[in-house]
Amino acid sequence: MNGKQLKNSILQWAIQGKLVPQDPNDEPASVLLDKIRQEKERLIKEKKIKRDKNASIIYRGEDNSYYEKILATGEVKCIDEEIPFEIPTSWSWARLMNVSIYIQRGKSPKYSPIKKYPVVAQKCNQWAGFSIDKAQFIEPGTLSKYAAERILQDEDLMWNSTGLGTLGRMAVYYARLNPYELAVADSHVTVIRLFKPFMSPLFFYFYFASPTVQSVIEDKSDGSTKQKELSTTTVCNYLVPIPPRNEQTRIISKVTSLLPVIEKYGTQQEKLDKLNRTINEQIKKSVLQEAIQGKLVPQNASEGTAQELLEQIKTEKLKLVKEGKLKKSALNDSVIFRGDDNKYYELIDGSPVCIDEFLPFQIPETWIWCKVKDLLDIQTGASFKKEQANANKKGIRILRGGNILPNKYIFKDDDVFVSEEFVNANTILKKNCIITPAVTSLENIGKMAVIEKDYNNVSAGGFVFIFSPYIQDFNHSLLLAYFLQSPFLIEAMRGITKKSGAAFYNLGKERLKELYLPLPPMAEQSRVVAKIKEVLSSIMSR
Fold first, then answer.
1. Residue 147 — φ and ψ, nearest 5°?
2. Domain spans, the chain
3. Could you give the residue ranges of the DSSP H alpha helices within 231-244?
């Protein structure tokens, strides 16, 4: 249960009479409602308010059903279907208009830059509380057009009454929070003024904030999908539970004492939820970083060295060049070595240059440092014009960035297909190659997937890189993909990106080729891959 759910539960218990015990010495709510009717009669006689022709009394009959009697006509009807929940015997149900002295939408104001009389709009009413700082101001000269009852009074309820996203939000107006002389409401806010000697506005705020009201607020509203509206008639006719006055005070005291605790709980729960959402990814990153540093499995001297593997790779590259499958420039291998001072150097233009600053960790003695270009051929996927896409989904399927997930790729229903004539044969995906987004959002840089079989009709798109290892071994490809997803390489890749548009980053091919990458012996690679699979499988099954 998160903080919001706990708060909703507390509010629901409060408005159902389940949060604090009932006191048999409390004056029942039915007596309280009688006093309100008497007070209304006095105000009517003094011509301070008008008689409401829809005024009613709600009571429970001998059959245990709820009935509503319209006082003006004597009409009685059963309203069991409207009652949302049971309440204690000392409580009563009433229409909001029968416990309020004023319910009215605000007026559309003429705004002014003169900061004298603020207008409470929907943005002022947040569940976090009321904020006068968000208010605009009316033209001072128009204040005379506002009847006295339209001036907000202390503890008025302000209910947002239009628009999805804001509809139903409520706040209590506290005069002490308004540094200005007075305030009025705009036409999107309904002002509810209760009989405060008998009714606590804060209890009603809790009621209207509860799931009972908020879960159906849109259903109670009128208008189109885009412009829902809570009419004044609907507000007036809302059923509200009425506790005894003393119990209202006890409920308020209990809820207000719990809210800081709930907020603290909610904050801690959010932290825990975030940890639960991210812990697997954090473990994955840790495992991959341990793997790339040679700390995941022990080294075995009998398995040879990575230098021997690198010589095999050079031999394979030479073969591919002779067969015309690889450009001669691919033979320009990096020369990286450890000097007598135990620092790493790279021969650049025939001169040794210290590269320790680019190598933030030590690797085992049997490993070597090299560059991405030494181990992988990098190609960009197929480029084609939008109009060349095949609407019949025939031809070559194109995998884009959205097809690439961490350590796997998927086919999607909205995949693009193009005719073979628009796709270079070199971009057809073969077993052991690795695909990764070339242009993507910052958080998706480094997503890698190893192709597990040869395809005749699947290629990558122009915003995807195809990495082809020179050694055709599946575990070798998996190891390189895992290493490229390590925090070390992810950080390096992000460091060489260039912004492309508002939200995308371009991972340049030539810059990518020059990144440093550690290489273990071939036999150790298989053990590292097996261990990574084991750990990742374990955390994913949690």
1. -65, 155
2. 16-245, 293-540
3. 232-236
Region of residue 7 (left: phi > 0; alpha: psi -120 to 50; beta: else): alpha
Just give the CATH number of 293-540. Answer: 3.90.220.20
Q: DSSP state, 391? A: T
> Each residue of 177-219: pLDDT tens digit?
999 999 999 999 999 999 988 999 999 999 999 999 998 888 8
The CB density around residue 129, as the number of other CB atoms within 10 Å, is 11
Q: Would you say the CATH fold of 293-540 matches that of 16-245? A: yes
pLDDT above 80: residue 227 = no
CA dist 47 and 347 (Å) reads: 99
Tens digits of per-residue pLDDT, 303-338? 999 999 999 999 999 999 998 888 888 888 889 999
Q: Closest Cα to residue 170, out of 184, 182, 188?
A: 188
Give the burial class of 73: count Cβ atoms within 10 A of its Cβ; 0-12 exposed, 13-18 middle, 19 or more buried. Answer: exposed
Pairing of the two strands 458-460 and 396-399:
parallel
Query: In this structure, which topology does domain 16-245 adopt according to CATH?
Result: Adenine-n6-DNA-methyltransferase TaqI; Chain A, domain 2 (3.90.220)
Among candidate residues 420, 411, 409, 423, the one with its CA nearest the CA of residue 380: 423
Handedness of CA 60, 218, 16, 249 (dihedral sign): negative
Q: Which residue has the higher pLDDT, 129 or 174?
A: 174
Question: Which DSSP state fits 111?
Answer: B
